[in-house]
């Protein structure tokens, strides 16, 4: 190539050519105003320095012999604030006629390189369900309405239900009777926690029905209300209150109830609807809690980088 090189201040410019084995490169450079340029370098790619001149104003007929076919980079660096204008000549002299038509224009291609890093991931292996006893077979005596009024005692009681985190559903089984001996017997036979554990172990899921659980006997009526904290005092003080229908049973002797909700700060309000006779009341409450089982695995993460590469076309 022959022509003019115009290089602005604080910049560099480079030219790239392919040469055949045995070629001789004749290199000429002349700054038109005789101003020095910071540096001129010639590299055989990828990084082998073949020629270097510091602050030249001109280079005359510099010969660079090409020992093997390759790509050469001519780099001109101007660290001055003012531009440089020069006449530039880079000529190729083939070794013999066999390489006269050698293509001196390097070709370009995009080369991808993939590297890997590793990271630790937590993966869900399985989900299991466990039973957690909330109230383990407790008994209460609930007075009649008239006795509560004239002789003391309570015709209503409230049982706090404190559910564990990740509760998916919970159950309570209960029975009411005027006979304390009968309630003692019924309470001792309550097996809600063990029955739920067996059903979960058999299926691994919550696919069983409420009819698969034992329904305890009962002899006298009671009302059971599922209420929140805002209605706690209203229920105890016999004021108008609200309740959740999902966990409420009225005018019932006994039963086993499923509550598919995790209600924070909830209570079971027990009421004796009989105005004359007190009742003994037994209850067991069990929650079913979901637990996710995880494993840690090492995962390879690919990182793909691309770069433009020069090559000599055959």
From TrEMBL:
Listed name of the protein: Uncharacterized protein
Superkingdom per UniProt: Bacteria
């Amino acid at each position: 190539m022959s022509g003019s090189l115009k290089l602005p201040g604080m910049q560099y410019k480079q030219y790239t050519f392919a040469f055949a084995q045995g070629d001789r490169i004749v290199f000429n450079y002349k700054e038109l105003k005789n101003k020095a340029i910071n540096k001129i370098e010639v590299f055989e790619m990828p990084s082998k320095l073949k020629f270097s001149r510091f602050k030249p104003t001109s280079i005359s007929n510099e010969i660079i012999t090409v020992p093997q076919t390759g790509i050469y980079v001519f780099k001109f660096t101007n660290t001055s604030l003012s531009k440089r204008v020069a006449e530039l000549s880079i000529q190729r002299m083939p070794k013999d006629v066999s390489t006269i038509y050698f293509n001196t224009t390097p070709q370009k291609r995009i080369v991808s390189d993939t590297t890997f890093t590793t990271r630790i991931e937590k993966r869900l292996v399985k989900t299991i369900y466990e039973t957690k006893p909330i109230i383990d077979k407790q008994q209460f005596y609930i007075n009649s309405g008239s006795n509560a009024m004239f002789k003391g005692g309570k015709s209503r009681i409230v049982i706090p239900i404190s559910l564990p985190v990740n509760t998916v559903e919970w159950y309570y089984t209960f029975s009411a009777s005027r006979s304390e001996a009968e309630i003692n017997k019924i309470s001792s036979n309550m097996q809600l926690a063990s029955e739920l554990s067996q059903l979960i172990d058999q299926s691994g899921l919550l696919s069983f029905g409420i009819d698969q659980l034992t329904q305890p006997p009962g002899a006298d009526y009671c009302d059971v209300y599922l209420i929140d904290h805002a209605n706690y005092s209203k229920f105890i003080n016999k004021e108008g209150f609200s309740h959740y229908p999902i966990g409420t049973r009225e005018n019932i002797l006994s039963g086993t109830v499923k509550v598919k909700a995790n209600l924070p700060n909830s209570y079971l309000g027990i009421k004796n609807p009989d105005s004359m006779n007190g009742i003994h009341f037994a209850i067991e409450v069990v929650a079913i809690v979901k637990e996710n089982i995880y494993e840690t695995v090492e995962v390879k993460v690919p990182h793909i980088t691309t770069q433009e590469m020069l090559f000599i076309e055959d």
